[in-house]
Design goal:
Blueprint lengths: L32 H15 L4 E8 L2 E8 L14 E3 L4 H14 L9 H4 L5 E2 L2 E2 L5 H6 L8 H4 L5 H7 L6 H8 L17 H14 L3 H13 L21 E3 L6 E3 L16 E3 H12 L6 H8 L2 E2 L11 E2 L4 E4 L5 E9 L2 E8 L5 E6 L1 E2 L3 H21 L2
Length: about 400
């Protein structure tokens, strides 16, 4: 699931990240050169109010890591190196890759209508699957309404604890979304909607006869040897080691441990996967380098559309099929996707050739928009520095 990216992909639930207690970095000699820059930038994210931060950067010259803050605010243990993470909407990049592999196999077409693949599923309140293509789903130009507001009555601690164990089938989530009118006619504008990727997962199962989870395992995780990445569905257990995640639901309110996921939107093709920074970097590097998609499908993934100024993304960000293109201060840009949920944020980014790849995890979120903006800026700066200055 992704509400609104720190670095940032837009989403349906505007839970900002805000002021959290600062925690000191563990004492260690300051590394020199780029490594020190990475540590300095990780500390800057911590200083913006995040309880714990971890960074892993892969470059042709080797691997650099940094961590700052704590992995548990009570025990004060450090953030684990390469600990397990909730990937949130970064799941969407895996799902889009499987869909594009099926396109390369001529089993579906990007221009195929949703109604042809899932008859009668997208209808009601003006929604019409006959006008929406597979391409529209993957790049968020479908205009389909968001289901999230229907499964999260209000972003409060009470709502989190009351509803976090409730599960929904994909068809149920789509049915909830179909109660609302579309935002715009398909293909005419852009708006992020998790409903798009719930449908993409359903299409994978309809076309292959196997779930999207099985296809991700068979087509991506196993070939790349990503043994620490999983599609746990409704299983709430995050393997150890991992940092605890904390959500501040009200400005100046307490931190609430939200390491247990919110099952209504953390269990599907739009945002349920878990993994490690090492595995996530390997996936994005392989994807950008052409190891997972044929040239035509990789080119389609990288073909982007403009996004509105109020999308929640930095100026110049464009959306492709399961990836975003983000400009760099040094010229050019990078491909990536973020994910977040209650108490966590993950950002994965790679240079367009796949030679430099970074994953950043932040383990708390809160409610003050001003602090959220500072944290967003700190994360963007960290990724920009890492991809511009690493060798």
């Amino acid at each position: 699931m992704i509400f609104r990216r720190l670095c940032v992909s837009a989403g349906a639930l505007a839970l900002a990240v805000s002021a959290l207690p600062s925690v000191a970095a563990s004492a260690a000699p300051r590394p020199a050169g780029t490594a020190w820059s990475l540590q300095r930038d990780a500390d800057a994210v911590r200083d913006a109010g995040v309880t714990g931060v971890a960074v892993r950067l892969e470059t042709p010259g080797g691997t650099l890591t940094a961590r700052s803050g704590v992995g548990d605010v009570d025990a004060r243990r450090p953030v684990p190196m390469d600990g397990y993470l909730r990937l949130g909407s970064t799941t969407k990049t895996f799902v889009a890759t499987v869909v594009l592999q099926l396109v390369g196999e001529k089993r579906i077409s990007l221009d195929q209508r949703v109604e042809q693949l899932l008859p009668g599923v997208v209808s009601g309140a003006g929604n019409d699957g006959r006008t929406i293509t597979v391409r529209d789903l993957l790049r968020h130009t479908s205009g389909l309404p968001e289901y999230v507001s229907d499964v999260l009555p209000e972003p409060t601690a009470e709502s989190y604890f009351t509803n976090r164990w409730r599960g929904y089938e994909p068809a149920e989530l789509v049915s909830l979304a179909m109660r609302h009118a579309p935002a715009f006619p398909a293909g005419t504008q852009w708006a992020y909607s998790n409903t798009n990727y719930v449908l993409a997962g359903m299409i994978i199962e309809k076309v292959t006869g196997r779930t999207w989870e099985q296809q991700v395992h068979d087509r991506i995780l196993r070939p790349l040897g990503l043994r620490h990445t999983d599609t746990p569905g409704t299983d709430p257990v995050l393997p150890f080691p991992h940092a605890a995640n904390y959500q501040q639901f009200t400005v100046n309110g307490p931190l609430v441990d939200t390491t247990v996921p919110y099952r209504p939107f953390d269990s599907g093709a739009d945002g349920s996967m878990t993994g490690t920074a090492r595995d996530l970097n390997r996936f994005f590097s392989a994807l950008a380098a052409g190891e997972l998609l044929k040239p035509a499908e990789l080119a389609a993934m990288r073909t982007t559309v403009a996004m509105p100024d109020d999308s929640g993304h930095p100026q110049g960000t464009r959306d492709g099929l399961g990836v975003f293109f983000n400009p760099l201060s040094c010229g050019g840009g990078y491909l990536g996707h973020g994910g977040n949920g209650f108490g966590y944020e993950v950002q994965a980014a790679t240079s367009v050739d796949g030679r430099r790849t970074i994953t950043v995890s932040a383990h708390s979120r809160s409610a003050d928009p001003r602090t959220s903006a500072r944290q967003e800026a700190a994360l963007r700066t960290l990724i920009d520095h890492a991809l511009c200055h690493s060798t």
